[in-house]
Amino acid sequence: MITTDHAFSGFSVRDTAEARAFYQDVLGLVVSENAMGILDLTLPGGAHVIAYPKTDHVPAAFTVLNFHVADIDRAVAELEAAGVRLEDYGGYADEKGVMRGKAAGRGPDIAWFLDPSGNILSILSD
């Protein structure tokens, strides 16, 4: 086992200015930038994740960041009001763009959306 004092995760973006505007202005996160141009996103609860610039960025093919919400329908409405379009993976989403897992006993209610770099994010309620 390694001795460490904390851990964090990160993912790449194609444009940090565009990413900063999205994560700060659309999602409401506290975002700072270091001298190397790496964004530090402060997540609800105090954890941190970094978003680093990568000129040959390729969006992740998996969800890189999940946001737990108390009311998924309200969160969907807030995202839509901010101009965010939901993704439907596999045709399982309802008319609001939510895959309803709670009612069927198959996990949380979840909806996916993309950041400006095409990385997959989700909101979920369990």
Q: Any overview of this molecule?
A:
The protein has helices at residues 16-26, 72-81; strands at 9-13, 30-33, 39-42, 48-53, 63-68, 86-87, 109-114, 120-125. The chain has a four-stranded mixed sheet with strand order 1-4-3-2, covered by helices on one side. It has one domain: 2,3-Dihydroxybiphenyl 1,2-Dioxygenase, domain 1 (Roll), CATH 3.10.180.10. With 126 residues, it is an alpha/beta fold. 21% of the residues are buried. The mean pLDDT is 93.
Please provide a brief summary of the model.
The chain is α/β, with parallel strands linked by helices and about 130 residues long. It is about 15% helix and about 30% strand. The model has no long low-confidence stretch (mean pLDDT about 95).
Give the ordered list of helices and strands: EHEEEEHEEE
Give the name of the CATH architecture: Roll
Low-pLDDT parts are none
Average predicted local confidence, pLDDT:
93
| CATH topology value | 2,3-Dihydroxybiphenyl 1,2-Dioxygenase, domain 1
By CATH's scheme, which homologous superfamily applies?
Answer: 2,3-Dihydroxybiphenyl 1,2-Dioxygenase, domain 1
| Count of helical regions | 2
What proportion of the residues is helical, as a percent range? 10-25%
Q: At the first level of CATH, what is the class?
A: Alpha Beta
* Spatial strand sequence of the major β-sheet: 1-4-3-2
The fraction of residues assigned to DSSP E strands is 25-35%
Largest sheet: 4 strands, mixed
Radius of gyration: 15 Å
Shape designation: globular
The domain count comes to 1
Count of individual beta strands:
8
